[in-house]
From TrEMBL:
It comes from freshwater metagenome. Residues 1-58 are annotated as: Disordered. This is Unannotated protein. The chain crosses the membrane at residues 69-88. Residues 100-209 form the Cytochrome c domain. InterPro entries: Cyt_c-like_dom, Cyt_c-like_dom_sf. Residues 1-17 have a biased composition (Basic and acidic residues). GO terms for molecular function: electron transfer activity; heme binding; metal ion binding.
Length: 268
């Protein structure tokens, strides 16, 4: 509460005293004068008394004096939008991480999009999305071998079909789509991509475009070939491995028959 300056108090007292008397003089009932006089006297006798206002109830006073948001909470609250953003992101199904092989695949996919569509929906080349890639190639090794070589190398080698010979809807064999050829992509087959770029593309197609679940059914394959920590990818990238290395268990650069889901890739 603020101190009221003495001169103001005095003025108020004087006015009260004067007012009371003038009121008394005009008042028809003389009793008022007697009632007003002690009040004026009492005011004069206690000069230091502060004007009394009705005190707040304890709970009102507490509410008034309490700080609305503590300072420490303000710091926390200011981060709320970021928490919210992270929370909402956490709710969305996460795509395979965009680093390692998949990042390379995303970068290179323009080389395939002209025939297979930006979303893998097909066109001059076959449909790659909606699980098609895993249906044709239950083993990633067969897909790598196919993309490396392309149609003509398979024809030249006399290989009857690529991918799963028991594929739903029948095996895919060279020129069985619309009669045109899939160009070779691997360096020794006449294409312009390195082995690690081909792996990156195949990973991007399987996990992003064709929707394989890297945390579910395809987790083992994903960890080995397509995760950012894939030792095979790193080996291909730094040149210590290539598609003919024994560590790549049967990818190979020579066209060969594909394998079905229940077949062991090494025996294929
Ligand atoms: C000039 C057009 C063209 C381009 C460019 C092209 N493809 Fe193809 N692709 C085809 C055709 C045509 C087929 C079917 C081949 C056949 O029937 O012999 C095919 C088939 C495929 C298949 C087999 C799909 C299945 O389920 O049978 C894969 C996988 C594939 N392509 C991946 C790629 C990748 C990866 C790239 C980019 C590096 C690429 N293609 C670039 C035309 C193309």
């Amino acid at each position: 509460m603020t101190e009221i300056p003495e001169h103001l108090l005095k003025r108020s007292r004087d006015r009260k005293a004067g007012g009371a008397s003038s009121e008394a003089s005009s008042a028809p009932v003389p009793a008022t004068t007697e009632a007003a006089a002690p009040v004026a006297r009492a005011a004069a006798e206690t000069p230091a008394q502060k004007p009394v206002s009705k005190p707040d109830a304890p709970y009102v006073a507490a509410a008034k004096s309490r700080q609305r948001i503590p300072y420490w909470a303000m710091a926390t609250l200011s981060l709320m939008p970021i928490f919210l953003f992270m929370y909402v992101r956490g709710l969305q199904p996460q795509k395979a991480e965009a680093s390692g092989p998949i990042a390379i695949g995303i970068e290179q996919y323009g080389a395939c999009a002209s025939c297979h569509g930006a979303d893998g929906g097909g066109g001059a080349g076959r449909v790659l999305k909606d699980g098609e890639s895993q249906k044709t190639f239950p083993h990633i090794e067969d897909m790598l071998n196919w993309v490396y070589n392309g149609t003509e190398a398979y024809e030249a080698a006399g290989v009857a079909s690529y991918g799963d010979p028991n594929r739903e809807g029948g095996a895919h064999y060279p020129r069985s789509y619309n009669g045109s050829a899939m160009p070779a992509q691997g360096s020794m087959a006449g294409g312009g991509l390195t082995d690690y770029e081909i792996l990156g593309l195949v990973c991007h197609i399987r996990y992003d475009i064709s929707g394989a679940d890297p945390a579910g059914e395809w987790a083992e394959e994903y960890e080995k070939w397509c995760s950012p920590e894939s030792a095979i990818f790193m080996g291909l990238e730094d040149g210590s491995l290539n598609f003919d290395s024994p560590e790549l268990a049967g990818v190979g650069t020579a066209p060969r028959l594909g394998t079905s889901a229940d077949q062991d890739i090494a025996a294929g």
